[in-house]
Amino acid sequence: MIGWVPYLLSAFLEETAGPAVRGEILAEAGFDPNEAFRIDAGYADRQCRRILDAACARLGLSEEAAFAAFAPFFLDRSRTMFPAFFNRRPRVRDFLLHQPEVHNTLAAGLKEGQRDHVAAKFRVEPMPGGVRVFYRSENRLAGLYAAVACRLGEEFGEPTRVRYEAGGPGDAECIMAVEVLEQPAQAAA
């Protein structure tokens, strides 16, 4: 896994639950309580997944609720750190079609085997009214992808829905149809 997700999840936990709780969650997940995640480092999928599992258990959140809470933070920090990824992509569909390139750019600093693993995690194809995402990862974070896509739709004023065509948000492999919904004003025009 690219270090960006554990880096942001760690920052989110510190900001929302406090440094002590963040440290306890990291320890419960098998990390040093003072772990400083690097965005240019690779981390084992299953190990990083344990951070999410420990956070949900500790904070009493379902995975879906955790992703919904984390998605705005994820987008805000991503936009601040990597504004070029958001430039010239004011529509959900355009942004999501660009995601494999963004993902691979972030993985550029990883070792060759790690880069290949990251590149194989997902593929995005255009479809009428949205995109189809083929997701494959042992970290089982398709639900986060879906939450971020829906939040992006809110921010762009394009209501977005994610429908699972195969598998589901907690599976290591799934196919998601990310659909940008027509708004009443658009439908009447």
From TrEMBL:
Residues 3-149 form the Heme NO-binding domain. This is Heme NO-binding domain-containing protein. It comes from the Bacteria. GO terms for molecular function: heme binding. InterPro entries: H-NOX_domain_sf, Heme_NO-bd, NO_sig/Golgi_transp_ligand-bd. It comes from Muricoccus nepalensis. Gene3D superfamilies: H-NOX domain. Pfam families: HNOB.
